[in-house]
Write a structure and sequence with these properties.
Rossmann fold; alpha/beta; binds 2-keto-D-gluconic acid; 7-stranded parallel sheet; globular; 2 domains; 13 helices
């Protein structure tokens, strides 16, 4: 029997590609010079899409693939996959939850520490001779014992909160409802009130149309000139223009961001600011976790083609 054709939207690590190519005929969209023509030429034979969290699969692409059966996302976030288009045609969608939770939480907490203690500038201070020439590095803000707000206490938010307890922080959270498993944290339903309460506001919400710009100008201003915003979710959860305005004016103290509206391109205003830590969307980017994510992508595809239950279905 010939191998099923799958459309790979963006590159995967070589170790995943080797495994995928053993089972499937992998059509690499990202290598095509003319992507529309590539899709047109292969459309009739494509049964699956393998994609990444931030790349997803648009309604247009799904609409151009008449025999598509399944979309397997390498990532927990599936906001970039048009679920309505999939639902309408009974196309299954899978993601890679759980395996990346701890790494994403680790990076979020690390970003808070790095930014609050000015570690990037401190590194430069040593390397460029400022330490020897000018003496002590400027004093920074403490983290331990501070007040943290977690916007979205799902799997990742919960792991962030767990880590913050180790810094003796007072933790509040916001979400659809108070959680039974968070009795030692304060529930504050309104994101503006949560931000007013917090020194450090973590955005850990699964993104959707409903959460777009949930971190609004009002939330950012409530966090205030001493506050820090940390985003390890999706850029769409934040009003990026309002964030830039607030960082430039000092209405917000600082930010630590792993995700951006137009990533991998950044609004150039970010690069002029020294009160923002910018990271290249790599919260899940460890070898161990990415291997586990790749395996889950393949396990979902294999289950689909074997007619078995999908390990981690979205729909
Ligand atoms: C990316 C992510 O998928 O889990 C998610 O939702 O966005 C990430 O893990 C990863 O960066 C690979 O592109």
């Amino acid at each position: 029997m010939s191998k099923p054709n799958i459309l790979l939207i963006g590159p995967y690590p070589e170790w995943d590609l080797v495994e995928l190519e053993a089972q499937y005929n992998v059509l690499k969209l990202y290598e095509a010079e003319d992507r529309d023509a590539f899709v047109r030429d292969h459309a009739a034979n494509i049964r699956a899409i393998a994609t990444r969290g931030e790349l997803g699969a648009s309604a247009e692409l799904i609409g151009n693939l008449p025999n598509l059966e399944v979309v397997s996302v390498y990532g927990v976030g599936y906001d970039a996959v048009n679920l309505d288009a999939c639902r309408a045609r009974g196309i299954r969608v899978t993601n890679t939850p759980d395996v990346l939770t701890n790494d994403v939480a680790d990076l979020g907490v690390a970003m808070m520490l790095v930014q609050s203690r000015g570690m990037i500038g401190a590194e430069t201070w040593v390397r460029d001779g400022s330490w020897a020439a000018k003496g002590l590095y400027p004093l920074k803000r403490k983290v331990w014992g501070g007040r943290a707000g977690v916007l979205g206490l799902g799997r990742i938010g919960f792991e962030v909160a767990k880590r913050l307890k180790g810094f003796d922080m007072d933790i509040a959270y916001s979400g659809v409802s108070a959680k039974d498993y968070a009795k030692d944290m304060t529930f504050i339903a309104d994101p503006v009130e949560l931000a007013r309460h917090a020194d450090f506001l973590f955005v850990t919400l699964a993104a959707s149309a409903a959460t777009r710009h949930i971190v609004s100008k009002n939330v950012i201003e409530a966090l205030g000139p001493e506050g820090m915003l940390i985003n390890i979710s999706r850029a769409s959860n934040i009003d990026e223009e309002a964030l830039l305005d607030a960082l430039e004016s000092g209405a917000l103290g600082s930010a630590a961001l792993d995700v951006f509206e137009a990533e991998p391109k950044l609004n150039p205003r970010f690069l002029k600011l020294d009160n923002v830590l910018v990271q290249p969307h790599h919260a899940s980017g460890t070898i161990e976790t990415r291997k586990a994510m790749g395996k889950l992508v393949r396990d979902n595809l294999a289950a689909h083609f074997a007619g078995a239950a999908l390990p981690t279905p979205v729909i």
